[in-house]
Amino acid sequence: TRTRQQLLSKVSVLRNESPAALLNSLGKVFDALFRDAKPVVRALTGVQSARQTLQGDLLIRGMQENEEGVPIYVCCADEPSKVTELVLSIYTRRERVPEAEELLLCSSHTTLEEIELLLRRFFCARLHHREERLYCLGNIHLLPYVVQCGTVEATRRLEEKFGFRHASALVFVSGVANQMLTNALNRPHCAVSVLPRESLTEAVKRIGEMYHGRQIEAVASSMNGVGKTHYILRQVQ
Asked: Do you know which InterPro entries this protein is assigned to (predicted)?
């Protein structure tokens, strides 16, 4: 096709560019190809208690067109082990499954580059039909101090560059209060509760049945080397 021929001609020209220019040019090519692609939205309806929403959860939303404000939010789980449950509760109340492009659960090995990629998606969401996306950084208490500082700097730098005109909504979720990142952002904390365990279990079950062809099963034991891996391999074969 004509589009394919044009793309191939551009690729042949790119071979002579420097690495930085090559990446920039490839980005423009992919942007032209996928800019108008509609995002995937996987519904998650019918979960009991999904509509039980506290005021803090209602505050987490994107800005309407021409509305002024800062759609960046901060919330803290009661304890570190509850962060994943809190994140799942936020998306379950919105009756949809979180997508890989909008959710990053951090660890001590998470890089600033990974975080900045998510921040860029947030700031440019409306340009790519993603104004309804809720971008989320979870477990930020696990980030090293240097990475937390870099995240604050990157957020401010991208805010100065893009503003919030094309942004959706962004929430930082921590398992420990008084983190450098959350304090430096100077955003009010949203009081968001975790859904009951039965509701979260039902949500995970529905995700498995609707989008993975089977229920999601967790395998755990109190001892090492008792055969968990072999059991899982037998189940998936």
From this structure: RNF213
Looking at residue 126, its amino acid is R
**Which stretch of DSSP H or E encloses residue 11?**
helix 2-14
Q: Is 131 helix (H, G, I), strand (E, B) or coil?
A: coil
Residue-wise pLDDT for 214-234, tens only, equals 777 778 888 888 888 888 888
Amino acid, single-letter form, for residue 8: L
- The residues spanned by each domain of the chain are 1-31, 55-212
CATH class of domain segment(s) 55-212 = alpha beta
Q: What is the pLDDT of residue 30?
A: 79
**Model confidence, pTM:** 0.81
With a CB cutoff of 8 Å and minimum separation 6, the contacts of 87 are: 98, 103, 105, 136, 138, 173
Q: Which residues pair with 137 in a beta bridge?
A: 104, 172
